[in-house]
Design goal:
Blueprint: H1 15-29, H2 45-55, E1 67-72, H3 75-96, H4 99-105, H5 116-119, E2 122-129, E3 131-135, E4 141-145, H6 149-166, E5 170-171, H7 180-186, E6 192-201, H8 217-220
Length: about 220
């Protein structure tokens, strides 16, 4: 049975206004950088909540919305997450990582130490939901499959990072591997699988970032 429909709420812009807006957006988003040095200044929680609301507007397969955003501000939990993440990262850097991968990481100056997992005021742990439990008439449950989960959650995360940047906050995308410890520490149900760990806060006054370039438009756009 088809869902009822409503009129599309869409603002059609003139080409001039469209250019002005997208150029302003490009100017802003070019300043977004991955930050590893966070200030201890508190972050108003409504900024994070509003950014998550924006992320939750993302399109998803069959509108299943297969994401969960767990906001961690408790210092004790952040400490546990840091300790577990550093254990996995140390194993990666010292034993598991191929030489080529380490060579590519070397110019960025990263290693297994992750102090930002404690200093950032908030950690947003993004979980993907491959399925959701569905109650049946007999009181049992069955899994209701979600579709295009990786793609859907990836789009939502892109919106989340952009929204947090728009709110004047700095972020980092952290992917310790494996990430199963996040579900355990945070007590998440078995249908939620860790996808990404995002420290959020204001950058420290002395924060520095690598002097890197982005590929030019001519390298990333193909016109056919």
């Amino acid at each position: 049975m088809a869902s009822p429909t409503i009129p599309l709420d869409f603002e059609r812009l003139s080409p001039e206004e469209g250019r002005a807006r997208v150029r302003a957006f490009l100017s802003s988003i070019r300043r977004r950088r991955t930050v590893r040095d966070f200030a201890l200044d508190p972050v108003p929680p409504d900024l994070v909540d509003t950014a998550i609301e924006a992320a939750a507007t993302a399109p998803s397969g069959a509108n299943r919305q297969p994401w969960r955003f767990v906001v961690v501000g408790d210092p004790a939990l952040k400490k546990k997450i840091r300790e577990a993440a550093e254990a996995e990262e140390r194993e990666f850097y010292e034993r598991r990582a191929p030489a080529g991968w380490l060579a590519d990481l070397a110019p960025l100056g990263t290693d297994w130490h992750k102090p930002f997992l404690e200093t950032a005021p908030y950690l947003i742990v993004v979980f993907r939901l491959d399925y959701e439990p569905e109650g049946l008439a007999d009181g049992t449950e069955r899994p209701h499959k979600n579709y295009y989960v990786q793609e859907s959650v990836g789009i939502a995360v892109g919106i989340l990072l952009t929204a947090l940047h728009t709110a004047g906050l700095a972020t980092l995308t952290h992917t310790p591997s494996p990430m199963g410890f996040l579900a355990e520490i945070l007590g998440r149900p078995k249908n939620e699988r860790p996808y990404l760990l995002i420290p959020v806060g204001y950058p420290a006054r002395e924060a520095r970032v690598p002097d890197i370039d982005r590929k030019p438009l001519s390298d990333v756009r193909v016109v056919v």
